Records
---
Amino acid sequence: MQQVLEGSHAVAEAVRLARAQVISAYPITPQTHIVERLSEYCADGTLDARYLRVESEHSALAALIGAASSGVRTFTATSSQGLALMHELLHWASGARLPIVMAEVNRAMAPGWNIWADQTDSLAQRDTGWIQLYCEDGQEVLDTTIQAYRLAEWVNLPVMVILDAFFLSHTYEPVDVPDQEAADRFLPPYQPRFMLDLENPCAFSQLAPPNIYMEMRYNIQTAMDESLAYFDQMETEFEGIFGRRHGAVEAIQCEDAEVILITSGTVTSTSRQVVADLRHKGEKVGLLKIKLFRPFPVSRIRELTGTASKLAVIDRNFSFGASGIFAQEIRAALCNLPAHPPVYGYIVGLGGRDVTTEVIENIYYLTKNSTAPQQESVWMGLHEVNHAIGHPR
Amino acid sequence: MATQKTQTNTAPLLIPCSYLTTESNKTGSWRFLRPQYEEKTAPCSAACPAGVDIPRVEMLTAQGLFKEAWETILAENPFPGICGRVCYHPCEQYCNRKEFDEPVAIHTLERFLADTASRYELKPTLEKLPAKRQKLAIIGSGPSGLAAAYFLARLGYQADIFEALTEPGGVLRWGIPVYRLPVDILEKEIVQIQELGVRIRCGKFVSQQFIEELKDTYDGIFLGCGHAQSLPLKIPGDDLHGVEDGLQFLGKIRRGQVPQLHGTAAVIGGGNTAIDTARSAARLGVKVLLIYRRRRQDMPAFDEEVEMAQEEGVEIWELQTPVKIEPKDGDLLVTLQRMRTIEEDSQGRARIQPESNKRQEIRVQHLFKAIGASAAERWYDPPKKGRGVLRLSNCVLVPQSQSAALVYGGDLVANIKSVVHAVASGKQAAVAFDTLFKDGVASIESTLQAEFVGEGPAISMEIHMGGPRSQRNHRTVHYEDLNSDYFRFSPRITEPRLLREERLQSFGEINLKIGASLAIREAERCFNCGICNQCDNCRLFCPDIAVMRDDNPKGRHINYDYCKGCGLCVVECPRNAMTLGEERLCNKS
């Protein structure tokens, strides 16, 4: 059924349809609407789940680690500082191979205190062993949240469903909300492959000495590889039931493009418009949307970018002392090919600054008119600032 | 180590999984600090002259175990009904809760427990030791004599009380007005003492000669005859008609011989008898002037009593002393000398002298003397010194080589003349006799010291009898020792009272009863300083699940095989009932 939904509520509807059994929550802007709506569903009986109010994000994830170990479907949501506080447990959840699903609303890290969109918070957690899925709009976030359970439960890895602050979390759009029967067909009840069992007591996650630790880490990597393959299979099933498919990556007019813009999140929607406008003017531009960041779909990216002469990666995030994080990943994906297009990196929209069609068009022309990348990252639209202001006296 | 794999889903899954118990890892071997349960002493209990185990009383009250709470008071004090009403509750001044919001209303709860026991006609289960061969004679059935007999009886001795007046109770019966202490309360608690086997012989005045006779049949004699003789004013007109003794006036009222008063009454003095006299006179319809030679704040009467007297219309004239009383047309003309403060002594009490030429005359219809009292007989007073005379905090013991030892107690030796000090005196005498008979006179002081509650001088009968309280550390718990994060602000109960107007119309009891739910709420305010109230914080916070419940749900113990000595339990104990000490290497588990 089509509904006009806030992005946050699209997540909540998906969690309801997934029949999550334990939800833990600690509020943080701009994530709070998700768990607020779920708390209402738990309170009025719409969703039959244990709803745990905890005292921190660290506890929120710790509680789910306990719950998931007992073989139930779990959910939490967080953002920015909250995600950072979970850091230790992010590693634990993946190391313990628990299929926890978390919505993460991209928000800038403090200080300065900022509640607006910025991907650095989730990208800083890229090495924690979580599958990361960056969403573009309300429909995708709903579909992806339901899919996340299938993916997580198949490979026994936790999944982060990621959406931009406000541009997605607080924006109302028409969203097709599936009925429960269809959702159940796609996502049957969770069948845990291991769980705490009073009849057969055992301990999980205890000491793993050098003779086995490395194998366990390699096993997580093979599970990541498996998830990459499984993703397409799962989406095909999803498409069979719901008639929609989003793709681990999506290529828009890349076949004959000379410059391919590479984006993630809501910047993609704006870029779609820019690509259409530029094509209209006869420019040979394409767009590659990356949804699946971990595992990173290296071979798909290689295939889809091979014909272009230049790649322009648009990053709403930054790794200090290096470059935009998607740009790094793209460079790493291509560098061992005998020949590959040069990779231009652009930094945009940090801390929620608007990324307009003009900014993206500007990026296209900067790339097209350049003979070779002059620097790792070009910071778009920086204002002149007096650096003396704000110095400690 | 084993791994868990499934057949249905082929996705890679390798996790650490063990079917061995983690109990094989005895983390206790890492410990160099050792937490342990160590109950300590609450400051209120150390401040109580009777050493009542107040934190335990309040803990049991909060749990609704009213009989057990009442018995816990009775372990140290035979008079919860009396002290719950008339005690000046020094305990509350030392209550740690005072530093947090307001002290716990300990006296209100004490009275509640006694009222509840009385309402349900409960019979206490009191520890009583096997019968001993020695017998004790108690002279005087006031609070010290009754208390001495009570504790001696519980220690297994035959105690016989000799009372000069027609009924037992001493100052409790004849001195304290019924609006503070109804007679039935006194009688119930006396009966409770008699039920332990104490015999009370009334109407038997004990002469010095009779004391000598008692020495033949008894192994010890306790003299608790009190201060029943009012001091004279020693001014002209002291013996005029209309000039009366305050103590006698109070006694008459309690005997039902209620005097007719009219006009204005002057009460001379600033002690509790003066206040009782003034308030009783106010109830008989006269205007009352309380004339005191020092300042209001120097009055030895308990503050609360003075405040209530003022509420009831008693006027306090401070820094005035009568110098002459003359008859005038059937009235009394009293000449008052104005006094002035020259300095304060080390306790802050005013030193005074007459202010020259500042005199005034007042005309009153009645004058009551209440400037203090002394022993009715000279020989009641303990010897100042002498061979073997042992001066204890609340008693004076005179051992006799050939016959019964004499112990002087109660008001005869007390600095602060209060019921609870009389109880302390009776208890100290009982312990002194018991120690004298068992271990000899030389052991008395060290025995008393070992039985101190906190720093003393209050002693505990439970400790003397070797009860669980003897395991407690004497160290007093201060507010800084508590973890106040676990306490919530909560207002102190307001003791319900008769309205001022109602009070003046009768001798009805002023303070009213409170119900169980209010009592529980007030008892829950108690921090239970130094004792375990089974809050379970230690167990909940232990990261090693090394704090275990005993089979008895009220007990906890530490499994030192796994306790790493992190000390969380000790820090999270809100009431300092645990201690963290260094592990002795040889002692390691």
Note: Chain A touches chain B at residues 96-97, 154-156, 191, 193-194, 201-208, 212, 215-216, 219, 222-223, 226-227, 230 (CB under 8 Å).
---
Amino acid sequence: MPKKSIIRTEKLCKSFSSGGVMQHVIKNLDTEIYEGDFTVIMGSSGAGKSTLLYALSGMDKASLGSVIFSDRNITGFTSDQLAIFRRKHCGFVFQQVYLMDSMSVLDNVLTAGLLTGQNKKQLAANAKDLLKQVGIEPRLWNKFPNQLSGGEAQRVGIVRAIINSPDMVFADEPTGALNSSSSDQVLNVLTDVNNKGQSILMVTHDMKSARRGNRIIYLKDGTISGECDLGPYVSGDRARHDKLRSFLTEMGW
Amino acid sequence: MLGKLIKANFRKDMSHMISFLLIVILSSFLMQLGLMLVIGYNGQFERKVKELNSPELVVFMATDDESEESAVMDYITSLPEVDYYEIKPSVPLYTEVLTADGEKTDSKDAPSNTTGSYYYAPYGEWGEIDKPQFVDLYDGPVDEPIYMSRIYNQELFKGAYKAGDEISLKVNGREKTFTVAGFYESVSTYNIFFIDPVTLSGLKTDDVVPVKQVLLKLTEGTDVTETYNEIANEFSVRDIPSQVISIDEFKLLYTQMINIVSVFLCAFAVIITLVVLVVIYFRITNSIEQNITNIGALKALGYTAHQIRTAQILEFVLTSLIGTLISTGIVYMILPPLEPALRTVAYMKWDYSFDLTSLMVTLIVIAGSSFLVALKSTSSIKKLDPVIALRFGLKSHSFRRNSAPLETTGGPLVWLMALKSFFASRKQNILILVVMAAIGVSLAVAVFVGYNIGYKPVNLQKLLSDSYADIMVSIEDNDPVSEIMDLPYVEDAWWLDSFTGSYEGSTVQIDITEDWSTVPGISILEGRAPGYDDEIVIGTKLAENRGIMIGDMILIESGGHSYEYTVTGLSQGTDNYGLFVMMNEDGVSHLNKECHKGRVYIMVEGSDPAISPKVVENIENMYGDRLTTYLDYCKTFADGNDPTITLSRVICIVLVIISLAVIWLTMMLLIKTMIIKNQKQLGIKKALGFTSSQLRTELSISMMPPIVAGITAGAIVGVLNSNRFMTLLLGAFGVSRSNMAADPWMIFTVIIGGSLLSYIMVYALSRRIKDISAYSLITE
């Protein structure tokens, strides 16, 4: 059965003006991101990975071309329309976590849920359940972000991203600021979430993280220079690891 | 090195410092202008007194009995306190202002009460005391010259006449067209029209009793009040119609309104200075929090805490100094158009020059207090360890309590988020509370003044007079009350006569009517009106000065007779500066006085300003030339033709504008700081899907609790103390207890209006949130 496309780009361009000089970061990019996939965007530094992620998620606007997200062309949306769109359709996991430091763990999660008008009781139960699933124990629920470890905070960030069951979770270097043990925990959570059907689009420059994806898109100078289908993640699958390594080598990584 | 730091600070805080500078300009402008006015006008009066050789005492006496006059003059000259004197004769002549076609009119916008008895004196006949100082003389040929004082041009004709203008008058029944040949300034003889001596003798008739103005120069070191009482008593004993005025009373006439304006300006300058200081504290402590790593880096580089603090302090002190200097420029720029406008209340030209005193005082108050607050605010830098600053920053927040948990707190999400923001911003809430309390006070005073003087001037009239009415008429007829009562639209009427008397050597005004208890507009503060012939009500100022209480018996003397009366009540009024007594007609018989009942006070139906002119017209038709003067308070107040009302309206508008400007500037500064401080949080919220309008609403609502609490506190304090403030302002006039309306609706109006306007302003100012994109958060 063919995969259902969630995001589709048509001749997507993104440029920035810096000191009067135009920088074309994404150039006429055509691609599709599919439902249920754990898609990973890789590329060298400055290739336009994060720019693409934020252009696809409606966090940033395309300069030219269009982004069709859940059958809607979001290119012409106003800032407020995009904000409302993001509530239901997108979840975000950032490298710096970006939890709201004046709010407790539970409130950070509930804020995102309440924005979509969910029933508060059901939402709270769901949030607690998800927090438990990612290993955030009840004693931490009323703590503030600065009282958590980096890994704990990022797991809370993931719960916040999935609380509304969005069409897509966008993860920008989610393990970039974590130590090895915390990174594994976070990646396990993302893998679990994906296994339950959640589509994920992740940007990373870390091969260990990239291994969790089933599809790798390699970006070079603002265009897709190659793609690799890894298939579902299986822990300790050596062949999968080698396939990714040879793909990246081929891409000049 | 320090210069570089200061420059860097300025560059970084430029937009904040501009808002701060504007607030400083506002406060120093008000303070400097207030001080300049009070110093300038009081100094101008003293200079004028010296320049014109003005008298310490002036006695107006009207008698055609030459022997009586010479006896009283002998007495005056025998007083060792009198150095020398001059007598200036003038003639009171009934005058109407006419149009070109000879009709009686309000020409040149003359108020309706222009018609009346005015003093005329021959031009050129004056001595050395208070010699008129002529200004704006007309240099063309003039047939019938008339010279009037600046005050009269202002008071009677609203400053409409210029030198060379023609003025048609009906003087003592004869029509005359004069040319305004010039204006004069004089401290004590401003109430005279100077005309050609031949013309004057032609206008005068035998039945006119001339009024003599005795100008007294006292020997140096004389107690003016004591001599004033002695002379007033002498005239009272001899029963000569007279009025004694001291130089202090003239000073009050010229400077009191300016002093009131100055007090208002300085009071609000102090309020805004308070705002300035709170802003400095908030800005510096926030800046330290935000730039803690920079401060740590500077310390690590070798900058001393003293240098870093000095740079921070100088940033604000220099801005305060610059603001004060800019405001000085603005003050001197507005003085040329302001000075002529102030002549309507000051009655004299102010020759202003650079005033170093007011500039220095303003600099010391504003820059000095800014320095002290900045010094205190930067004290945390002293103890800051560079390593801790670089590694951990300053623990500005220690969120220990999860206020308004979303799981259990009900309400819309934006409101809940606002509630959370509110609980998380203690320092900022205190700042807003203090600023808004100050604003609340100023808005409360604006509403109080606006209502009691601008909108319902009768409240001020009640405060300033022992009795108030809609109309006062003076008729050359004894007891026209019953006839006036029969006129249509007249609701009530009573006559009132006044004599001069004394109590324990102090001159008091004795106000008499048939029965005070039937006068509708009587203003009794305590006790009751006199009911019997041995009862009186006294002015509160007299009671305070002499320690008299209700139930006391006091001896009143007048015209060589005396009687002991029981005090039944206290009344408030500015007649004779609060030194007056009120008794009934049968009570004054003990002093052997006979009342003249020609001065009648009238209340019209519903105190309607549309009706009162009809009543005046009816009285004019009934009495013709026998109506010597009238004052239609009702219409004058409704038209706003009174300088006090105009001034109070201007004060009220200025207060509201200043309050709104301070809210705007403070909130601008505050919101900019908050947005910069919370940029990350705002970006996260945008990424999660909050719209700009939701975030702006959240921010605005989160600021409302301290705004509403501050305005409420300020409104309550302001309204409850407005009467105290008015008592302070009008104390010199004889008001000892202002009791104008200070109603709860005023408090609610300030709270609702102030809060609503603040919300709108905060929402409008939070527009910057629109410019923060979630993407900028990621790429910062």
Note: Chain A touches chain B at residues 50, 54, 59-60, 79-80, 83-88, 90, 92, 94, 98-104, 106-107, 110-112, 114-116, 120, 124, 142, 144, 146, 160, 172 (CB under 8 Å).
---
Amino acid sequence: MTQSALSKRLLDEYAAVSDSLPTDVVSAERRQEAIQALAARGLPTTREENWRYTNLRPLERARFAPVAAAAAAAAPTVIPAGLDLPSTLTGFARFTFVDGTFAPELSSEHAQAGSTVRNLRRAPESSARRQGSTAGTRPLTAPSGCPEASLALLNEAFATDTALISVRGGTDAPQRVELVFVAVAGADVGASYPRIQVALDPDSRLILVERHVSAGSGASFVNSSVSVDIGRGAHLTHYRLQRAGARSAWLDTLTAVLAADGRYSLLTINTGGLSARSTTQVQMAGPGAELILSAAALGDRQQTQDHFALVEHIAPRARTDQTFRGIASGRARVAFNGKITVREAAAGTDSRQSLRGLLAGPAAEIDVRPQLEIYTDDVRCSHGATAGKLDDSMLFYLLSRGLSPEVAQRLLKWAFLEDVVSKIELPELRRQIEHDLAGQMADAASLKELL
Amino acid sequence: MSETENRLESLLARRYKHGFVTDIDADTVPPGLDEDVVRLISRKKGEPAFLTEWRLKALRHWLTMSEPHWSHTSYPPIDYQAISYYSAPKAKSDGPKSLDEVDPKLLETYEKLGVPLHERARLAGVAVDAVFDSVSVATTFKERLNEAGVVFCPFSEAVQRHPELLERYLGTVVPFTDNFFASLNSAVFSDGSFVHVPKGVRCPMELSTYFRINAAKTGQFERTLIIADEGAYVSYLEGCTAPMRDENQLHAAVVELVALEDAFIKYSTVQNWYPGDAEGKGGIYNFVTKRGECRGRNSHISWTQVETGSAITWKYPSCILRGDGSSGEFYSVATVNNRQQADTGTKMIHIGRDTRSTIISKGISAGHGQNTYRGLVKVLPSAHGARNFTQCDSLLMGGKCGAHTFPYVEVKNPSATVEHEASTSKISDDQLFYCLSRGISEEDAVNLIVSGFCKTVFKELPMEFAVEAQNLLAVSLEGAVG
């Protein structure tokens, strides 16, 4: 389908459902602006430098109208029986969204002093939640100038609900919140638009666990949008675990701004979806801000796992540490495109990128692009990237110790991911993730024994 | 006569008015580019039909293309219809009459580089009749090359003497459809060099355009083709360290290298064209397509470049590693000062088994200069055991310059190993302090550190070039310190 035809379909679909989209989540004007901007710009194509590794074919087939728009009129979202959600984490308040809309019956709120978490879409039984105004729903960082963030516009136009988290300072113990997004409906029914806004007041602390899972056919179209605002001296630890269904298209845009001495530890593990793409855009706006971005991706069969991470340093003495580990098996493509821009004012910037890809299948592909764009001299920036197979000498060592080739290979793959997994500071979560990862790797039984 | 016919006739007459199809023996065609201009160029050069047709095909393709803008550079739009695409070699009398008329800045540079007196006149384009010894030198060279069977001549001469080689190899590495500037070059290329080293021959000397037999200007659309037959060896030097006087602002050259089985081609470039003044006015746009293909088993192509000149440099000398066991190398030093912009790097395309490539790139940015390394390492599914190592370092001098690194690593074979590492920093205060405390002046200390930074590339240059390149670097970074 040509770009213009696609843009036209986008506008048509929007016009058909625009009246039913909740204005308390995003105002009608902003939706209109977003859809116009997106139609004018066009949906991304692989001809664009930062989309060339993405599988964008699902965009051509997807129905853009949200599932909720189709379902809301008829009946509330049906939660499938036997929905297998990840087990809860001790001390975390859980909020579950099904196809982008809040599902109170699957959520367990812990009242936590110092933070508020709410969804903006009125739940049928508790109209008290409804916001009279759209205060607090400031636009996500304007993506107009950034072609990489164009899918956030798609989310803005069609969003059905928002998870709004605001954390106040003054308590030492970090707030703990878990968000679970479940995609149920297939792409033929409609799309799902998870949407999160996180705001941390100065000196506040938050640990946020964000999960994306699928139920049902596993062939959903998910386009999520996350906006993070980290105040002066605030710390956010953010775990993003994407385990969408094996036939899903999962697209995601995250924008974050860090004020002075803010600290953002973002850890992403992408294993699901047939075509997955994450766009992460972080601006180091305050002096002394710190970003630790760790990402792991596993691709198997025909999967495409693409991650684009742009970090912009505009204030002095900020620090970025980027780590990526990706394994491509089968016929999968695993790509990581990490770009760090250091503007003139960002003297004393210290950045490090370590991107490594492992090829574990005869027709697999690894694409890594560590990019640096630097406009001042007082910096220390380095990057390293590798793509290749498992180290023969390590394999030999393990074989000489009597391990079978299969076990030795799995063990080394496991160790390869440890650079990212070991950064998970919550033991309970780490165990869960390790089990998940072991499950993703072929012949998981022997690995699970090792855990 | 009907009205339609009248109009038709007047249209025909108007077309004729431009006179491109006439046989007027013009030295320079009016600005603009169409099929008539291309035919004219081809006829002027007495080219065989296949070449004329090839040029026309290139032009037709070029007309369908739009200028690329993905490079990390900025410049005002170029009006391609305002350029004159053919001019006969200028008469020597057009140049300055003596060294006294030459820009003193240029002479100062020659002094610093230690260019011999008699060469200065030639480089500055002074209309001296007897240009030192070059005629006799060239003759001696020609004899030795003839003995070995090496063909080294201007491209236009090769068209007459070796059309069969041209027909076989021209455009096989860089097809006329390759990119905007290569297509333009294919349509209107003026002249260049042609080298053919026959089977098993080791070229007895370094071939250098500096001493090239055709003293005439090769113009802005240069085209070079080098073929190393089985087991042949050739080392080719392009450019020279001294700045050349040049009136053309846009340069769109194409270089094609073909290495057959066990052949070895080493291509070194020192580019020091006019970079424009300190405010970024003027200067050459150097938009070049350079590519070599290792066609045979165990063939080898090595690119070495020292880029200090030009307002904008946009070039990616690349290697297509098709033959099993073939290897490619890329060594580069790129310096930008004042308002210069450079977007340069390489592409290594691994196709054959056990192919190897090495990339060493050193970028130095000073003043308001913007220096970009852009490189692609691509391993195709057929390239079992492919191996690449890339190192690209950037040195920043001053808070207004930029250093950018855009590497692409794309691997489709699980037995391949690709490594890339890069660092960007300013000159270490510790190193500087150490030198200063030993009584070395700041300028010398910086030169020393920069030389050390570039050492791995300079050692790839032929000996006498390496020494000149170091001086050149010091000159081009002048004013960047302190």
Note: The interface with chain A takes residues 70, 72, 365, 379, 381, 394, 396-426 of chain B (CB under 8 Å).
